[in-house]
Amino acid sequence: MKDRRLEILGILSVAVSLLVFISLLGYSPNEDPGISPNVRVENPMGILGVWIAYFFIKLTFGYSSFIFPLLAISWGIWFFTHKEFEAINRLSGYLLGVVVLLSVTMGAAQIFRYGFDDTAFRFSGLIGGLISLFIYDFVGGIGIVIVLVSLWLVLARGYFGFSYYETIKTYWDRIQKKKNDQIHVTEQASIEDEKRRHTQSLISKIDKQRQRDEDLNGPDDPVSEEKEVLDIPEIVDETSPTEEDSPENFEEIPIEPDKPADEVHSVEDETTEEAVAENTTESPDVENAENLEVGEIVEESEVDIDSVQERKSPKKAYQLPSAEILTSPVNIQGGMSRDELVERANFLQQSLETFGVVGKVVNVSPGPVITLFEVEPAEGVRVNKFVALSDDLARVMEASRVRVIAPIPGKSSVGIEIPNRNPDMVYFKSVINSEKFTGAESMLTIAVGKTTTGEIATLDLAKMPHLLIAGTTGSGKSVCMNTILASLLYQATPDEVKFVIIDPKKVEMTLYRELADYHLLKIEDIGEPIVTTPDNAT
């Protein structure tokens, strides 16, 4: 019964609403209910349509009254379909507010445009016009604008779910981001221009210095002479541990395999004494390539770790891992030539002078990843000035970063480490296949990598009861940890070394679970091979 009544009510609502809507469409300001019966009515609904249109548009809320029949049609459809009335009730309340507010807004617009006369309020209707006139008289023109804008904002915020604050904040953030991006682009362009001008200035100074050197040296070609002097000697493999006795000797001496060790020591000692004598008698000058000491990258010979006798006979039936499973070194770079190193030393010295720090590059020690330039400060120059210029030097030398060692321990010179433009990759396989690693007596020897001069670097973990590894994100902490563990796995059997690994994050060390029956120590009352909970860790 109830459904039948709702359907009937829905049909009647739609029908009446259509009659009202058509009457409003046929409204004409020239037609009113007092029209003579002899005059032809243009409204499609006849005299009834004239009355309806006159009432809604002329007397009530003007042209905003078109919302009434549309809302009534929506109600009729809602009755007919038996839907819940909560949504249509909420919509109806806000639409009625829109009708009144739209009528008042049109009335205020007519007051601003035409003033109040006999033809006023033809768009807003009489009720809407009177409300707008009352507000206008009470708060004035500016006041009515503020009131209407505020009411529209409140009405929209009440019905729709968006937030004005979040919207304004989003647009403001976009504007600020565009502004900051533009500032960043401008700053980058300014920095690049300054960098380009500075580089051109340095190149001009170097060219002028070369021109002065050519004028002083006469008709001889100093460039060809310098290239003759700076030919890089062949890289000597470190096949004997006797080279460690002279670490300050940057120029390697080829060692004949059939010479006794004591003879080799004597040759290297004489060479070291001669180099020291030259450094003490003459003041090296970077412009004179003959006096600039340029070291070379040490390339140590590799051995096969699998062929070491001790690895073939472990205490128990356990086979140490083979080096063949590791990636072999590829694409080994040849490094910079001696001419390129001298050129960079020239450029570095000129850059320091531009920044007001006078010094001479007295030694260059190239490595696989970085190159160390030793600078002798001029008299009266403080070493902390070099440290303050690290960022500026990185910009001028087009490097990601520059490390300043002020001073080098045991020397009066300052060290400036600059990354190579084409750094060599240091492979773990090349380190564990070295004589230093395979010939180490301690089973806790770890492969660290290579020094700045290219020498293999190893450490004895037994001499470090506490080891702290720290660094920024992406600096290589996890790689270092894996290198330490892999070094121990290549040196010792499960009977010789046991691990207790604590990994609360359950990320870094999960792959070592496979060592549960081998190198991982089994602890009573702890049922996990790798400790991950705080209770088990304590």
Termini separation comes to 76 Å
What spatial order of strands do you see in the largest sheet? Answer: 1-2-3-5-4
Tell me about the largest β-sheet. 5 strands, mixed
Oligomer: single chain
pLDDT averaged over residues: 76
Name the overall outline.
elongated
Our count of helices gives: 16
- Could you tell me the radius of gyration in angstroms? 45 Å
Order of helices and strands: HHHHHHHHEHHEEHHEEHHEEHH
Give a summary of the structure in a few sentences.
With 538 residues, the chain is of the alpha+beta class.
Set down the secondary structure blueprint:
Layout: H1 2-25, H2 46-60, H3 67-81, H4 86-114, H5 125-159, H6 164-217, H7 222-229, H8 261-281, E1 293-294, H9 309-312, H10 338-354, E2 359-366, E3 370-377, H11 384-388, H12 390-396, E4 403-405, E5 414-419, H13 428-432, H14 435-438, E6 445-450, E7 456-460, H15 477-491, H16 534-537
3D structure, described in words:
- By secondary structure, the protein is an alpha+beta fold.
- Among the domains are: 2-165, no CATH class; 166-220; 226-243 and 258-297 and 335-419, Threonyl-tRNA Synthetase, Chain A, domain 2 (2-Layer Sandwich), CATH 3.30.980.
- The chain has helices at residues 2-25, 46-60, 67-81, 86-114, 125-159, 164-217, 222-229, 261-281, 309-312, 338-354, 384-388, 390-396, 428-432, 435-438, 477-491, 534-537, and strands at residues 293-294, 359-366, 370-377, 403-405, 414-419, 445-450, 456-460.
- The strands form 2 sheets. A 5-stranded mixed sheet has the order 1-2-3-5-4, with helices on one face. The chain has a two-stranded antiparallel ribbon with strand order 6-7.
- Helix 3 packs antiparallel against helix 4 (86-114) and helix 4 (86-114) packs across helix 5 (125-159).
